[in-house]
Amino acid sequence: MTKVITYGTYDLLHQGHINLLRRAKELGDYLIVGVTSDSFDCERGKLNVRNNVLERVEAVKATGYADEVIIEDYIGQKIDDIQKYDIDIFAIGSDWIGKFDYLNEYCKVVYLPRTEGISSTMLREENQNTYHFGIIGSGRIANRFVPETKVVNGAKVVSVLNPNIYEARLFAKTHGIEAYSDFDSFIEKVDVVYVASPHLTHYEYVKKALLANKHVLCEIPFMLSKAEALELHGLAEERNLVLLEASKTAYCPAFGHLVTLIKSGIIGEVVDIKASLSKMVVPPTRELDAKQAGGAMTEHAPLTVMAIIKLLGVDWKDVNFHTKKESGVDVYTKGIINYPHATSSFTLGIGVKTEGNLVISGTKGYVYVPAPWWLTDYFEIRYEDQTKNKKFFYSYDGEGLRYEIQEFLSMIVNERRSCYKLRRRESVAITEIIEKYRNGENVIEI
Ligand code: CTP
């Protein structure tokens, strides 16, 4: 019996896939089709897949050509599968010519003619609405945001708003978009809004954008008070709009997988989390300006506290802070968040340097994410018995903002108003901790 194997995503199954599967089946007696898992696609940068893995498996089965369907979940799996299933022929479309020659060592490799004029990408683009983004603010993060939208289907930045029209024009010229200094003219021309303005303006801009019925992606720190965060999430809900905190780490593939693994008990019960983030800044800069709500807490707590809250939840018992201030701004803050059955701490610096790693300790083992853990692409699970240690590698592409943009658009398209990667209550809880610090609750100056 000749056994053939082929792989693909098979999103929005089309005639090209059907032809390929028929040709592959004709090469032998038994055809195994490997369908990529959602997380594997995400890891390899295929962010826009429409059908989930179960739908894609069903579609492949419905063609009637596959004798067996398996899931492809990791790099290097093809070699494992070929040996495990005793495969004679590996078949793939001619768009991959040469790319799989390395498998010749294990079986025969056949490149089958690809059907011209159709692809999942084409179908996705045809069915895709384009969402016109307006950016509020034209600083560093806004500059990094624009190129990231280019890799997400359906995202197009069309304009920027800055009350200082000269700055708006400069930004607009760099990115080939329109410049506005007036909110009302700006908001008319956009479908969705990305708020990347100074911290203290987030509340007002998000509220105005929601009142204009626009979905909003808001940079961190999302809000500076719990009441504001609750109010705006409530307003978005009332108007059936998406309001998402742009906590980039929360949406990246590696961090998502890390959370899932820990929740499934791989290190036992989580007892302690230590998260650090330090980035030195050079004056003059808004990070060191008290009048602009600068400081290590407002800059870095949104990501570090997010990691703690994702893993230990929102029901903490008490929170306290030790902080070093200069000219009214915290250049270093260490916070402790205690839970009934766990403790956690975060250390944040903009004028003090520390190692920026994340360590999650459990009753069976611990997870180590090296600095910069907030750009997660690699982590290790370590045990007393070192032979059981595991290393996990992922891609973290570009500036990493593409994952939040993708999540934001997917929520709009699929009419999801809440996102499991960062729940609204988690976003509110992060804000509450920042607010406690800013109100001086349990804060000791060193
Ligand atoms: N394929 C084909 N003819 C097409 C499209 C795909 O023969 N017009 C083949 C590919 O070469 C591959 C298999 O179908 O062997 C699965 O490909 P997949 O990547 O899932 O499909 P694409 O339509 O190419 O998807 P995308 O546009 O997302 O890359």
How would you describe the overall organization of this protein?
The protein has 446 residues and is an alpha/beta fold. The chain folds into three domains: 3-121, 3-Layer(aba) Sandwich (Rossmann fold), CATH 3.40.50.620; 124-248, NAD(P)-binding Rossmann-like Domain (Rossmann fold), CATH 3.40.50.720; 250-445, 2-Layer Sandwich (Dihydrodipicolinate Reductase, domain 2), CATH 3.30.360.10. It has 15 helices and 20 strands. A nine-stranded mixed sheet has the order 19-18-17-16-12-15-14-13-20, covered by helices on one side. Strands 8-7-6-9-10-11 form a six-stranded parallel sheet, sandwiched between helices. Helix 9 runs parallel beside helix 10 (226-238) and helix 13 (296-312) crosses helix 15 (424-438). The longest helix has 17 residues, at 296-312. It is globular. The model has no long low-confidence stretch (mean pLDDT 96). Bound molecules: cytidine-5'-triphosphate. The site of cytidine-5'-triphosphate has 18 residues, from strand 1, helix 1, strand 4 and helix 5.
Quick structural overview:
The chain has helices at 15-26, 38-43, 53-62, 77-84, 120-127, 140-149, 165-175, 183-188, 202-211, 226-238, 248-251, 253-263, 296-312, 402-413, 424-438, and strands at 3-8, 30-36, 68-72, 89-93, 108-112, 131-136, 155-161, 178-180, 192-195, 215-218, 243-245, 270-278, 318-326, 329-338, 343-349, 358-362, 366-369, 378-382, 390-393, 443-445.
